[in-house]
Amino acid sequence: MDRKKIKIDLFIHDLKGPLAVVETGVRLLLEKPESYGPLTAKQKKVLERTLRNTRATRMLVDDALELERSREGIVNLTAVSFSRLLEEIFIELFDLIDSRTSEKVKNCAGLAELKEILTERSVTLDIDESLWRREFCLDETKIKQIIRNLLNNAMKYRKHFIEVKIDTNDNVLFLSVTDDGEGIPRQFHKKIFETYFQLGSETGGIVRGSGLGLAGVMVLIEDLEGRLLLESDEGHGAKFCVEVPLYEKQGKG
Ligand SMILES: Nc1ncnc2c1ncn2[C@@H]1O[C@H](COP(=O)(O)OP(=O)(O)OP(=O)(O)O)[C@@H](O)[C@H]1O
Ligand SMILES: [Mg+2]
Hints:
binds adenosine-5'-triphosphate; 3-stranded antiparallel beta sheet; 5-stranded mixed beta sheet
């Protein structure tokens, strides 16, 4: 790894310290009213949201470090169910844009209720009940980052709808995120995976974000020895399909 890269990694790493202090402080205010004084319902709500987002920031820092580990080819398999993975992703995603939906997802009882909550936000989740509960050996951090980035893009670029579809066969996870936005002209299908490339800057449209998400997604998918297919035409939405090898809990891993 070159010297500049190590400096950036160290910087990301060092963000962990101050973040931990903020997280602990807010947690103490919430959990120990006997020591720090009682909170009104409104104060409690604000602090709970602060805590969730501090945790989300800490996870992003962990993810940034994970991306670097990934670049070094390190894969870390653990047992995980799609129910936990997707619930966490949706709680985090909506916490930033619509905290009431985030709260609903957090309290939802199961897949059927989650699907209903998401439908209200024009997001369709297509996954079988049996798949929902089963545990697989996956690199949780990497898979979450992949889904989170594709979902963030779909939320950003959709006109109305998003569909998230998850399926498996014996040893492959199929995941797709589809939106009904402006789509991506064919000549840019490769380019959008390069760092800092954004369509708006080419076409004079609005540029939101920094053009890093998909480049990161590609690195992660390559490390998982998977592949990504893009189906999109200008004006007809976009569908990002991911395939990665999957191991049953008792199996390899
Ligand atoms: N679902 C989509 N629909 C239309 N265009 C997309 C979609 N996803 C990505 N793009 C195009 O690809 C570009 C690169 O995407 P990428 O996720 O790498 O960056 P970003 O979303 O602009 O910023 P960042 O993810 O770093 O916050 C985007 O700027 C956008 O032009
Ligand atoms: Mg993005």
